[in-house]
Amino acid sequence: MPNSVRSQRILVGLLIAAPGLLFLVLRLFPALDASADNHIFHFYIVSFASLVSLVVALFVSSGTGIRSPQTLFVEIAFASIAGLFLIHAITTPGVFLPNGNPGIALSGRLSLFVGAIFLFMATLEWQPDQEIWITRNARILWLGLSILYVAYLAFVFGIPEFAALLERSSFLTTLLAIFTIGLLVWGTWRIWQSHLDKSGRLALALALALPWLALAQLSQYSAPLWATSWWLYHAFMLSAFVVTMASLMMDYEEVLSFNVTRYFTAISIIVGVPVVAILSEVTVQVSGNPSSRWLMFAFGFLALFLLFLILLLVVRHAEAIVRERNSALEAEKQWRTDLTNLIIHDLKSPLSVISISLSLVLSGRLEDVAEAQRLPLERAARGSHEMAEMIDNLLDVERFEAGLLRLTLTPVALATFLIQTVESVLGVAQAYDLKVETSIPDNLPVLQIDQALIRRVLQNLLANAIKFTAQGGKIRIEATSSGETVCISVEDTGPGIPPGQRARIFDKFTQGEGTVRHGAGLGLTFCKLAVEAHGGHIWMEDGTGGIGSRFTFNLPVKLV
Question: How far apart are the first and last CA of the chain?
């Protein structure tokens, strides 16, 4: 397991445990659990949390670039939380309603309850026919939920006495809290497993957000009103929304359909609205005139809105220029790709003729080969073989990038497969007087992999190790199984790769600089794409004792 994955697990554990520990300390030591009755601040923080949750809901599909039942249910979860939390804010006593409304507490609890249901549904694995049905009927689902929301509004504001009766029911309140916390904890486990398998930003963010929402429900249920431990639930929810929003924004920056206008609008809302609220409230407090609060907020919001419209026009004009230039660059890139493929295909046929002819001459079937001729012929044969490998790598890289190369998965006894692959290059290593060591346990699991691709990955790594290791050096192949992944590493005693170049070593057409490790810059790119297509990762680090290089790739045992 790479150090980054181990560090990530530790960090996630700390970020989940620290808030829970803080809440526990406040509940165990009441003297620390100070009370702060501030209805206006409650309105502001709940309204902002509702706003961020709504933006999260709007960005889920566009941020991930995926449309599926999972993203649909995450959208619904955050939209439901936003809608119910907005009622929770509006019904704050002394803000819009002098005496408040019983819906304030009920809406707060229901927001997490409904959100937990849909977030848990987002962690489930759906059958292909179920996925199609859910995706096709998404509008009907949204319409039904909208009708339920309007009905709930009528219920809360039309018959508040019944809402108060439900709120006073300790049985119902406890049942909601237990059910919500249970779903969120279970969902956290499932989403964490998904993150380990697929390693996505949204899955990692939700693995943090769901435990925080569970703590928010616990705080809302058990903490005294207006106590610091009660205020924590607002902080937990806001943190969950902000972390999820941040991951979606980072994902959205990487999707091909990136829309600058949508990105600018989301950032403007998240930053601009709280800035207007803070400045308006500061002005109210300084002037000592609370009655002018909403008038100041309205004027501040109007000024922000006008500024936003002006900047939006500038952003849309700039986006149009960028889109036009990107189209020209894409056209040029496609022309270069087509030209490259044409040249490669034209090269492959005569190269095959050369390779076959050289093999025929070296075999001695035509006539005996003189010793003086054998060495240059063998070099020519090796060169034609290397050129054929470069062409295959380039073609497969192009297919991977275009999404045209599909995996052909078959069950493989990994230990036997690795030993056979190493043996296929053993003769070349011995010809260069290199010592080859292996550490391949017999009890490695059986994996479903594309044998041809993974064999080429390992052969590429071994070929690089042979090429860049001096005569008399050593190459070591090691395989380990951790239960979750199988790691395979190839280590050499060559010149290594400077730290400043390692971040780019797997990029297309990247070669080493200031080192003897040169090549076409395609082999490692192919390795990266092939391993990632299997759900694994590949990385490079120093060899034992800081000598040489060690390339390691892992494959998830989920493929068993």
Answer: 18
pLDDT at position 180 is 92
Query: In the predicted model, what is the mean pLDDT of residues 264-270?
Result: 82
For residue range 385-428, list pLDDT tens digits in order. 767 766 776 777 766 766 666 788 888 888 999 998 888 888 88
Task: Write down the pLDDT at residue 520.
Answer: 47
pLDDT at 341: 67
> Residue 226: helix, strand or coil by DSSP?
coil
The pLDDT assigned to 518 comes to 47
| DSSP letter, residue 487 | E
Cβ atoms of 456 and 390 closer than 8 Å: no
> Closest Cα partner for 52 from 245, 303, 333?
245
pLDDT of residue 515: 44
Whole-number Å distance between alpha carbons of 490 and 357: 34
Structure tokens at 436: 């080859």
Residues whose CB falls within 8 Å of the CB of residue 55, separated by 6 or more in sequence, listed in order: 245, 266, 269, 270
Evaluate the CA torsion angle 519, 525, 528, 533 in order and state its sign: negative
Cβ neighbors of 458 (< 8 A, separation 6 or more) are 418, 421, 422, 488, 490
Domain segments of the chain as ranges: 36-278, 291-405, 410-559
Q: Are strands 549-556 and 537-542 parallel, antiparallel or unpaired?
A: antiparallel
CATH level 3 topology of 36-278: Rhopdopsin 7-helix transmembrane proteins (1.20.1070)
The CATH number assigned to the domain with range 410-559 reads: 3.30.565.10
What is the spatial distance between Cα 491 and Cα 544, in angstroms, rounded to a whole number?
8
- For residues 210 and 204, the answer to whether their CB atoms sit within 8 Å is no
Helix 160-168 and helix 103-122, axial crossing angle in degrees, nearest 10: 70
Q: In the structure, what pLDDT confidence band is assigned to residue 560 with cuts at 50, 70 and 90?
A: very low
